[in-house]
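Sample pair:
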Amino acid sequence: MQRYDCVVLYNTVDAREKDDCDERVYPSNIVRDEVPAIERSLVDGGFQPCVLPVANFSKDLVETLLDIAPKFVFNLCEAMNGSCELEMCVAGLLELMGIPYTGSPPLALGLALNKFHVKQILNSAGVPTPRGYVCRPGQTPAVPRSMRFPLIVKPEHEDASLGINSNSVCRTIEEIERQIGYIHEAYRQDALVEEYLDGREFNVSVLGDREPQVLAVQEIDFQGLPEGEPRIVSFRAKWDEGSLLFDSTVPVCPARLSKRLEQRIRDLALRSHLAVGCRDYSRVDMRTDARGSLYVLEVNPNPDISPDAGFARAACAAGYSYGEMIVRISEAAMERSAGAAVPVRAR
């Protein structure tokens, strides 16, 4: 029997679509390109990985991990039991078992799924975010007087641009009511309403644990979008590879920036990463308003790290090969293993 020294743990994809939802499942949502790429990178780095797909928490999962007793788990789980809200519980299980793992701890993973709470934490850390509020199901979708149109509406507890479409940017009360109703109906959750910033959009990758490093800054070029289409990375723009929206939201890495703006972006990215409690790797999304002021939109502690994703592109621009990036993430987990408990099978 082959002896493994690490595990690549990932959740199988639930391809079912939500009723009355405009965001359908595309092939790029389902194929986990990062799994074989990470496996190859670990093998090339001298490891013997076991690739372990999971769908649900189970006794078999616990016993398999105990049998392997890996030096670390490369944790790629974004959901469990069909729920993204249980993403944090995978990290929690590994901590309870005393198994070091890559990526952010449970608190950061759980916190990031509440966009409004993240806004509050960032604001308390002096990181600017767009003005916003939460509208819960059953509440009247009134807009506070302090906020100005246009506004953007998104689900409060989703990632991967779920719930963001061509109707998300609203310019009237009627449009706000329609889009909030859509989030409540299709996603069964609170709607986050924010001022829409009609400026440049950046996503910034951060790599490392004890001394996190901001990688190359990437900008999204919206110039090719059809007239009337909002300048946002909607769900279709991110995942529908055959669409005009996908082809018209072009990543530019490294972004063409003044030294002053680049330094400001890097400073805000690092402060955001630390404020949310991210570890090993994260992505911070930002935009400027019409006057050029910079605001943080979201912090993603578990971004896509497949070979063709923005994180890997930023790492390459910063001088890392894909394999070097994966090994560096793995080494951060192993450095933490010195203080971890040794997994012991219960009798």
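The chain has three domains: 6-102, 131-195, 201-331.
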